[in-house]
Specification:
Blueprint: E1 41-42, E2 44-58, E3 70-79, E4 83-94, E5 97-105, H1 125-134, E6 141-147, E7 162-168, H2 172-182, E8 186-187, E9 198-204, E10 207-211, H3 213-217, E11 252-255, E12 258-270, E13 292-296, E14 306-310, E15 325-329
Antiparallel strand pairs: 1-7, 2-3, 2-14, 2-15, 3-13, 4-5, 4-6, 4-8, 6-7, 9-12, 9-14, 10-11, 12-13
């Protein structure tokens, strides 16, 4: 009998290398889906993560073995104060990707903007919009510059998070007219999403700091009789090539990476956060004061983190047209209060 080789697949995925800290706590959205619709609309929104609870809903997926039955689901509460549309930005497509053409800003941005940007004393909004209109034949993408209003959420920060949200559907001239109407106004989540639909969620996950290879990559702990180390790796790689390969699991930063999760379902969009706040409030967040969205399942990131929502890039083929029927929302305290 010859030696039978043991099956030992490599530990840890190389899919997300390099595992370094995200540049900003607000996630980037690099792709906006194409919307086939006659009316233009925003393709995204920005929210703040409050915490989790659980709900009982009636299963409405027809292929599910639990169809028509009451099922329990974990869910996440996102606080969604209205976003302020403070600018319009136009892009054109070039062989090297999207190129910024011009933009228009609202006349009197809020005083909090000085915490984020260095702005001129006043904008000539009308002249900017006219310049945009003259370039309509060159424009391929129109995005709005949207700012969060953290003062309206249960957050201590005053600094707004400024993001770009693309407008989809209809034609470029119609998108421009729609953006013009929104400029200087606020948008609520009901204007962007509807209950029961699927969305994509982009966020920066919870940071774990500097971790060793066992926790970071899941490598096997070495036997205690081995030399010097147990929670390290057995080999740094082959003699040739004469350098340390990128695929060797090493200690380093773990967490605080950007991730995107596809097809999370909206269970409910509400206006009064008191009806969803658990007893004793959400840990590390407090009560939800204003409008909120209830998302099925978990969401990346820690409490208070900025969560970016987007229309689904690859939605499920079979979806229910009706919003899910919620029979019970747990408001029990996670702290036993």
């Amino acid at each position: 009998m010859g030696h039978r080789k043991t099956h030992a697949p490599r530990h840890g995925s190389l899919a997300y290398l390099p595992r370094h800290r995200a540049k900003k706590p607000v996630a980037r959205i690099r792709y906006w889906p194409k919307l086939k619709a006659d009316t233009p609309r925003l393709l995204g929104f920005t929210a703040f993560k409050a915490g989790m609870t659980y709900v009982f809903t009636i299963e409405d997926r027809k292929r599910s073995p639990n169809f028509g039955k009451e099922v329990m689901r974990a869910c996440t509460i996102l606080e969604t104060p209205p976003i302020l549309i403070c600018g319009i930005r136009a892009y054109t497509k070039t062989p090297y990707g999207l190129q910024h053409l011009t933009e228009a800003w609202m006349k009197d941005p809020p005083a909090e903007f000085d915490r984020t940007l260095v702005l001129p004393e006043s904008f000539d909004t009308d002249a900017m919009l006219q310049k945009l209109e003259k370039m309509l034949d060159r424009i391929t993408n129109i995005r709005v510059i949207a700012a969060t209003q953290p003062k309206q959420a249960n957050l201590s920060k005053k600094k707004p998070d400024i993001t770009e949200i693309e407008i989809g559907g209809a034609t470029i001239p119609k998108q421009f007219e729609y953006a013009k109407q929104l400029l200087g106004k606020t948008v609520t989540p009901e204007e962007v999403f509807k209950e029961g639909q699927y969305i994509d969620i982009a966020a920066v996950i919870t940071g774990k700091g500097f971790q060793g290879p066992v926790k970071r990559w899941g490598v096997t702990i070495l036997q205690h009789k081995g030399r010097k180390t147990k929670r390290g790796i057995a080999t740094l790689g082959p003699w040739n090539p004469h350098h340390l390969m990128y695929s060797i699991p090493r200690a380093g930063q773990m967490g605080y990476h950007q991730r995107i999760e596809y097809n999370k379902r909206i269970l409910k969009i509400g206006k009064d956060g008191k009806e969803i706040t658990v007893k004793g409030d959400f840990i590390h967040y407090g009560p939800v004061k204003g409008p909120y969205i209830l998302i099925e399942g978990s969401v990346p990131g820690t409490e208070k983190r900025v969560i970016r929502l987007r229309q689904p890039a690859r939605p499920p083929t079979e979806t229910s047209e009706q919003p899910p029927q919620i029979t019970y929302i747990s408001l029990e305290s996670p702290q036993g209060k």
